[in-house]
Structure prediction request, 359 residues.
Amino acid sequence: MDVRTLIPTNGGEAIKKFGEGWRKQLATLQAKFSGDLGNVLFPGEAATDFPIVYVSLAKVIELLSFLKTEPGFEYDFLADLTATDEEQAPRFEVVYNLFSTVHKNRIRVKVKVSEGEEVPTAVSVWPGANWAEREVYDMFGVKFLGHPDLRRILMDYRFEGHPLRKDFPLRGYQIFTEPQVIDPKLLD
Amino acid sequence: MSKDGSASFFTTKVDALFDWGRKNSLWPLPYGTSCCGIEMMSTLCSDYDMSRFGAEVVRFSPRQSDLLIVAGIITTKMAPVLKTVYDQMSDPKYVMCAGACASSGGIFNVYSVLQGIDTMIPVDIYLPGCPPAPEGFLHGLLQLQEKIARGETHSHRKLAEHKRGSSLASS
Prediction:
């Protein structure tokens, strides 16, 4: 099977249901964010089950709040916020999976980040992004600008390195026998 | 005195008497972190009934228990907690390490999992299995009881070392 053909999703073939709406939404986005919008991957044309929109680092929060509030879009639920290590020039891609509880459809926003760059935090748009961004920081070392409480969430505070980076050794054990001290000064 | 007039008495060492008492009234502290914990609960409940072997008084405070049952995966973030719990238990204390994850890390040979709790605390009895069945828990408990009766647990060794040290100091 060619993955570039339709990918059935849980609710049947989403493109039959939402294809037209997605086209219209993407046209609106192109008009509003023309310069800052990167690649747009559409289901049926690329290996994806719902549209992927790449956006520049500067405009990501503006785009997210637009998607959340604009009538006709209303992607009001942040289903997931994660990242990938691409092992190439902009090293990371931060991924926002959005769901609309009004229209029952989904969209995915991606932003390319090179090492050391900071992504503006999405906590102002979705308070639930707080822990998700902490997890991305913990696992990938991507920092979020303006995050209220950016510290490790899964690993020990004394842990060194970011385990989901591709260059992190699979067996990079770091064993601590003493309980961790919760000291705000450690949590940079 | 017996009926025929001969003296009938029973001699034993006080230590052996204490060990006999301890082995028949182990108070477990359940440290169930995953599926092994479910098997342990089943062992403690009426189907398998660990109380037949004197180990039914489950205490959730390390101060009141003498058998630490580590049943399940111990992540590196959980490791210091386990160490603290073990340190808080009063001597003599015994550790039962149930299942592949607690014994060796199991299939999780990765950065986030402790590769066997024996890298951190002494273990008296290992139960194989993924997870071990309730029969396995009972078998392990019986083996541990025999080990306590023979005086071969880590607590016995620690006590013996302590006595040797104090006798050296006094002589």
Observations:
- The CA atoms of residues 40 and 78 of chain B lie 19 Å apart.
